[in-house]
Design a protein that fits this description.
Chain lengths: ~475, ~375
Amino acid sequence: MKILRKEGDDIQLLCFPEENVAKGDYVLIHDVSSERSLIAQIIDVQYANIPGILEDLLRDGISENAVTGNDVDPFKVASQIEVLKDTRLLVAKIRGALDHGRLSHEVSWLPSRTHSQVMAMPIGFLTDTLGSHHTFELGSTCRSTIIRPDLTALDGRLNIVTGRKGTGKSHLSKLLVTSLVNEGAPVVVLDVNGEYVNLGNGSDGRQMHAFPKILSLIPGINLRFNLSQVGLGTLLGILVHALALPENSARVFTRIWHELEQENSLTMAALGSAIVNFGCHDSIKDALQARFNTLEDSGLFSDDPRVSIRLEEVFRNHQSGCALIVNMKNQHATMRRITVELLISKLTDLLSTQKLKALFLFAEEAHLYLRETYWDDIVTRMRHLGLFTTFVTNQPDTVQNSIYRQADNVFLFNFSNDHDLEVVSKVAKVDADTIKLIVRDLPPHRCLVVGDMVGNFPLVVNVKPLDVQTMGATRYFFQDQLAAT
Amino acid sequence: MSRRTHQCVSASTMLEREPDNAFQQTQQTLSSFLQDDTLGIETLPESFVEFCQRSIKSTRGEFLYTDPLLTTTSSPRAELEEETSSLDLGEVDEHDIIPLTPKPSTKPVAAIDTSTIKLGELEDGSLCAIRGAIVLLENHRYRYIRYGPLVFSVSSFPTRDDFAQLGITPALNELNVECLLKRVRDTFERWLQVSINRTLRDAFVLLDGSLMAGTSGNSSRELERTLNAARQARNLIIAISKNTKLRIGDKPITNLLDTFKKPCLLDIDTQIVRQFSHSLRFLGRVFVGKLANSGFPFRIDVDRNAETEAILDGFHELIGTEIVDQGYPETLRIAHILSTFTATDVLAIQAFAASRFGIQLIPKTALRRSLFGPFGTGWESWH
């Protein structure tokens, strides 16, 4: 490989056919005279613009199939011509430098064109520095180098997993969830499709060692709260934000709540009869009654302390890590919103009172249940409380731009749509060109990892296969035919 | 364009010294090429390959000053028309125009073209390359055989011995790179022409250029040999010039057919020969011809020994057999395309010379650009 051009952090390299490099690979540009090297990542592979190539291709193509013949080439010059025709132009981004063997961010110098050696860089050079405390196998590169990042790169961080449908987002999320649980971390998964519930089972149905740590919670069945656990603030939040209770009615509800609290009778039964008997305008009473019925029908509230969940106890009983899978499959949008409002409020409460040290939250398709005001809250307040969120979505424009800009780790699967690519290119950790050029060509189960998890050296990774019942695989009508092909 | 490459070279003998053996072998080769669908093993005269190898071996380790502005400048064919160019020709009488009517035939059509290029300057001479192609139309199918690129060097101070191997004995005034490059090309081209004429029978053989030769030297002998070979095989040689410097007043002779749209011929042989016979040998009969409706007119030379009737029949059959889009035969067009050097070829050959013979490539700086940078007024400052 030879240096052709450098402009800013863009560098173009000429690559000859026998040199085996691909998009996402790293190259080391070693300036022999200064004993320094630039580390660059290939983000696009193009044909080199060789003088006369148009004429040459026209000559080949103009009579293709119409003229056949033989070449008598005693000097074998034709092979040189073939080499030239297949010479590639590598478009690369400079990611860092090596100064006398040490990683450096000083990349403002210009390597010599004549005295530089350009070579493929073993990826281990970069991944060896990723950490060693809580490593897990994320997958491998195209050159079969195993990538073992440290889970501490998710700790205290905001993460996004996004990509087109069927590219392997959920698969990666499950890998992250199980890896966190295996390392003793508490995890909550907001599971809209019920595809995480069998994470404890192997693909053949047998129970894995993580089985006892995977707790499936179904709202209204085994995810229920009593009113005193919930508190006025949370319930008002649900009424106003999830059930659109008007302000006047909310004020009346507050009065009712306080009265019941003073009487020490915060139960659903007492709340129901208090609404019926409270002296207020009929319209307010009707509004409160309707909302109460919805809450009651949801099954999320119970006066029986034996069936209401105590999250702090659940986490306390699983000190070696657990994943609470909140299965919201087949649930109405309102029910989902109530569930999430309740859950996040409760978790925030546990974190702020130090009953829970920290928590990893995985939110699949969060736009389906997360209200507007929560986005910023998750990035700022909750993060400081110890709630570290990973958003998983196939609709990147449903995640707010501020989330992309502040994300610490981004796992990007294939997108081919320009609009989607434009949205995800707002990620601050890497330039837009890298995302647009690499992500567009990613095959399924291969992702571009950007951020702290890969030491801010973007890596293309084949995600490790999981031996669990993933449940998220697309179900086909013509399954038999597909299997046969 | 599907093709196979053969690197083997037969042990044929020197082209000039033992012509019969060399041609016999080439003839066999071409026969297999022309007759077999699978094509045979192609050969080059060993003398040619040895000449190239010997000449380039002497350049090992030398610097080759390459011209960064060199793009697709295959050396143009030098024509023998420079001495006098203006003809004294009266108005064209419509009765002199011979209309051409396409007449289908099964006769094969073969075309030959070659090209040379200077790849750069050596300390003492130039590094050059040559390539040639034969294209054959037979049974509505085009096939080709392409030779080269053959790389060789020409010294700035050549001796006659340098070229003896090719049977070239240059005159003293021809001992310069340009003349010798032309002689090498002529020799190579004549070898292709004779080879094809010894292989095909009852065919049209199309050449690029004219059938003129100087009054002295080998060139007319070589051309006569080609024509003799063609006559023996009852082939009709037709040479078509893309560029002619023959003019009437200030206009090219091809303008004579400007007002005629349909395929036609105009015989201008008598006037041409009368005016130039003192300095040139016209081995062909000279026409201006338009071979397609609204096509371009060209100067066309046909073997002088051929009878008029045979010539005219030949033209009727040629335009009824061959594609003559825009008035130029397809076989000749393909032969030209195949033999021309592109800039990619030049780069590849330079790289080949560097890797195989240890020649060190040094870009030749454009003087004006070096001196004046963006203020140079020459065209090279724009590149």
